[in-house]
Amino acid sequence: MGCYLSKNRVDELLSALARADERLKIEKEQKSIISNQIATAVQHLSSDVRRSVLEEMVALLRIDELTEKNTRLLSQNKIPLKNASSFQQLLVQATRRRQLFDFQPEWKLNNKRHAYEFIDKLGVKRPKTYAYNQPINKIVPINGSVLKPENGSSSHGVFIFDELGGVFEVRTGESFSSVQNALDKATDLMKSGIIKKDSWLLEEFIGDFDEGALVPPVDLKFYCFYGEVGFVLEVERANETRYCEWMPDGSLASTGRYKDKSFIGSGFSARHLETAKHISKEILTPFMRIDFIKSRKDFAFGEFTPRPGQFSSFNQEFDRYLGECYLSAEARLFSYFYKNSKVKS
């Protein structure tokens, strides 16, 4: 059941937000005054002490609190501006960039048909397509297939049809005893606005069955930065959805997320990692999450996700790490475009 607020209550919340913003501005002004005073004071310190003070100072400042004076001083003393790297802020800026100029190659690939055309050109395994761009009333599911909206996100509206006539909803983990019940749920998702468009895709199920019953596959989601992998999220959707987070070297990642829903997964192979890198290098954009489906026997492309859900939920350290991955990829892209442009030094 939805939560509906009166207009008066909404106005009260907006006023509270404005007051909080005003307090924040005052605090930022105070931090700016203090940091500029530090910048002046350190000029008379030895280089080693100066660097130590500046490293401590920059750790306490956010990107929008770095003044011109501080930035110049930090640069001159070769203090890394790691605070300027924020995956969250960069994805928000990418959204604004798309609003200003509606062309970003990663968003074209958000459409599953375009994604499959792209993947087919690269020769990467993907599920067979049985139907696409069809309204829900034209979809005829078959055993061992998956129904999904063409432009869905966060697994909304994804249903797996097993070999015994049962259906599993990926997002909720709910099981349906009949195909029609699942199609009715898909219709309800459109009526509620969760699924925006009545355009559906039916494809092969990449996974396993145990005596005809569904064994949900594992999702491997590679956070890719123009040819490099920064982070891998493994998702298990059995009785409950659980998560395992990996660094590209196979060690566990500490992201601050999913503390109560974590498990130790089976991870990924070197071949899986190289496949993700190969695909990412062909997409001329700083960031793309590339999602794969892994079963006992198969590893296949699933979909592209240009703006992952919960991208703002990483802890500060990991947000900065992913921000560094993003900026590094952006720099490599600038270098690529420059080398292939008509302007040469």
TrEMBL record:
Keyword GTP-binding: no
Molecular function terms, GO-annotated: ATP binding; metal ion binding
Origin: domain of life: Bacteria
Organism, as annotated: Nitrincola nitratireducens
Domain ATP-grasp stretches: 116-335
The protein's name in its UniProt record: ATP-grasp domain-containing protein
Family annotation (Pfam families): ATPgrasp_TupA
Keyword terms: ATP-binding, Nucleotide-binding
